[in-house]
């Protein structure tokens, strides 16, 4: 039986096995945890994301705007965006990490690749338009 104390040992394995990118930010917007999928997403070598600031990870400001909004307001944010330098489309879901007294201690962002779904929608729309 897995005990609560064992979850800290299991978490790195869970994150490493995920297909979606997961990044955890502290209150100052610095990355304190990132899984392999998120490193692949931003095309960086292993552990390069750790310690980077949210403003430095993406060529456009959409990701940093999302994270700062979560850190300031404590409200979750959903958005689809193209992550540079790739041309893949991701659905990004960012949520606050709440600590004692419901204060905001950080944020978690999950990046889900929806490129194939969006391309399929476009092909289907073009097909219907041509018919």
Note down, in words, how this protein is organized.
The chain is an alpha+beta fold and about 130 residues long. The protein is built from 4 helices and 5 strands; from the N terminus they run H-E-E-H-H-E-E-E-H. Helix content is about 35%, strand content about 25%. Strands 2-1-5-4-3 form a 5-stranded antiparallel beta sheet, with helices on both faces. Strand 1 (about 20-25) and strand 2 (about 30-35) form a beta hairpin. It is globular, with a radius of gyration of 17 Å. The relative contact order is 0.15. The mean pLDDT is about 85.
Contiguous uncertain segments of 5+ residues:
none
- Judged by helices, strands and strand pairing, the structural class is alpha+beta
Termini distance? 58 Å
Q: How many β-strand stretches?
A: 5
Spatially, the strands of the biggest sheet line up as 2-1-5-4-3
Q: Report the helical percentage.
A: 25-40%
Largest sheet: 5 strands, antiparallel
One letter per element, helices H and strands E, the order comes to HEEHHEEEH
Report strand %.
25-35%
Give the overall form: globular
Whole-number radius of gyration?
17 Å
Query: Oligomeric state of the chains?
Result: single chain
Total number of helical segments?
Answer: 4
Mean pLDDT: 84
